[in-house]
Amino acid sequence: ARLEQVVLNLITNALTHAPESAHIDMRLRSDDGEAVIEIQDHGEGIPAADLATIFERFAQHEGLDRDTAKRGLGLGLFISQEIVKAHGGGIEVRSPDGEGATFTIRLPRMERPDTETATVAADA
After folding, report:
1. How many domains does the chain have?
2. What is the C-alpha separation between 73 and 13, in angstroms, rounded?
3. How far apart, in Å, are the Cα atoms of 100 and each of 82, 96, 108, 120, 123?
């Protein structure tokens, strides 16, 4: 449920900060023993000066949205990062100028439990 909260937060942010006509891409893949989730919007992106502090508690960046009604408390990305860390993973963002933002979550893959069932012999 907590990882679902992270994904929903990233999708909500993408929908909030991208133009209405823009689409949001979400990709899930396996990479070198990790589960990787990518959420990409095609909006204006995040200014380079804001990228270093984007996951800090109470981080609000003027460049992200001039409409103050769309700004939150600056806790969503901080909380998302803490949840991902608690699951042994990491979260990062890339945002080339004018090309939107891509948030990437990397989590260690869990091994499936062995599905073979053991046969227990009963003493007669």
Report:
1. 1
2. 12
3. 23, 7, 27, 58, 67
Q: According to the model, what pLDDT value does residue 90 have?
A: 98
Domain extent, residue 64, equals 2-89+100-108
Q: How far apart are CA 71 and CA 37, in angstroms?
A: 24
Mean pLDDT computed over 36-62: 88
pLDDT in tens, 92-124: 999 998 889 999 999 999 876 665 555 555 555
Sign for the CA dihedral angle at 17, 18, 19, 21 comes to negative
- Does 57 fall in a domain? yes
Residue 82 within any structural domain of the chain: yes
13 within domain boundaries: yes
Q: For the domain that residue 54 is a member of, what is the CATH number?
A: 3.30.565.10
Average pLDDT, integer, range 30-42: 95
